[in-house]
Specification:
The protein contains 1 helix and 11 strands, in the order E-E-E-E-E-E-E-E-H-E-E-E. The chain is mainly beta.
Amino acid sequence: MEKVCDVSDLKEGKMRGFTVKHSYILLANVNGRFYAVNAICPHMGGFLPIGSLKNNIIICPVHGSQYDVTTGKLVKDIPTITKLATGGGSHDLDSFPVTVKDDAVFIEL
């Protein structure tokens, strides 16, 4: 487990990107619980922490694909010309276990 931040560093309803063991991770605080997923959108490489978080849904800043931060599941894929031309598109994000101990947030990769 790697310490990412203190609980007080990430307010409820907010998300932030971190580098953990050479991986970009998005950490979100949803209703006082912390969740961690890949920070890079699998479709076109958008940096998800600069997107938006609405309740438990992350919206990619590049093409608007939407993911459930509590599970990493893709909930809405936005068609694009690139996706139609290549057959590629978004898919689920990897999610990682999060532990809160002594007011610190830890992620297990």
